[in-house]
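I have been asked to look over a protein record a colleague put together. What it holds is a sequence and that sequence's fold in C-alpha cell form. Please read both lines and tell me whether the C-alpha cells look consistent with the sequence. I do not need a full report, just your reasoning and any doubts. This is what I was given:
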Amino acid sequence: MNRVVVGKDVIPFSITYSPKARKKRIVIAPSGVRVVLPHGSQEREATELIESLKHRVHRAMEKVLQQDERLKSFTDIHYVSGTKIPFLGNELPLLVYQERRKRSRLEYDGRLIVRVPLGLTSQRLNAEVKRKVEGWIKKEMHGEALKSASFFERKLGILPREIRIKAQKKLWGSCGRNHVINLNWKLALFPRKAFDYVVAHEMCHLRHLNHSKAFWKLLSSLMPGYQEQREWLKFRGHGCR
C-alpha cells in the first residue's frame, strides 16, 4: 500500500488502472483513497499527483469521514424492544415479543410489534427483528413514494414507469432513460421533506436527464426552497442522479 504524509497524518492510497480513464483522477471514499490511472501510465505518476494535491486530499478525506460518521449515527438502528424507529419524521416504538410460533410476524398499530419464535439466539433474534422491520419500512416507503410522485405529477404531467426501493451505497436516488426511479430505502429514516425532495428531484429527470438550468428551474417550480433539503442530504454524504 502506498502512502502520503500530511503533517502528523499518514494517508494510505491504492492505485488502479482503468481502460476507460482518459486522465488521472483521485477517488476519495470512507474506505480509503484511490488513484485511477489510464492504461500505460507509470506508477510514479500516481505518487506525483497525490503529492501535489495532498493537502486538498487530506481535507477532503476528513470531510468524507465526518459525513460517513454522521450518516451512521443517523441510520444505525438497534433492533431491540424499546427502540424508537424513525420513519419519515415520526418515531415508531418497537416492541419485540418471543412467543410459541413457527414464523415471525410484524403488526403495526402506531407501534411496530414484532413477534418472533422462542429460543432464538441473541444474534438470530436481532437479525430476524431487523429483517421484519426493514421489510415493513421498504414496503411502506414504496407506498409513500407513489403518493409523493402522484402529487408532483399534477404539476409535471408525467409519472415514472416504476419506482424501486433499493439499498444504494452512494446515491439517495436515481432515474434512468427507462423512466424508472430508484430510491435508497434509508431515505425513509429521514424527515418527510428530505424524502419528498429526492422524489421531486428524480421526477424532474423524467423531463431533463441532466442538471441543467432548465432542470433546476423545473425542480424549483415543484418544490420552492428545495435547496435546504438538498444541503441537508449533502451533509450526510450522498447525492442524487
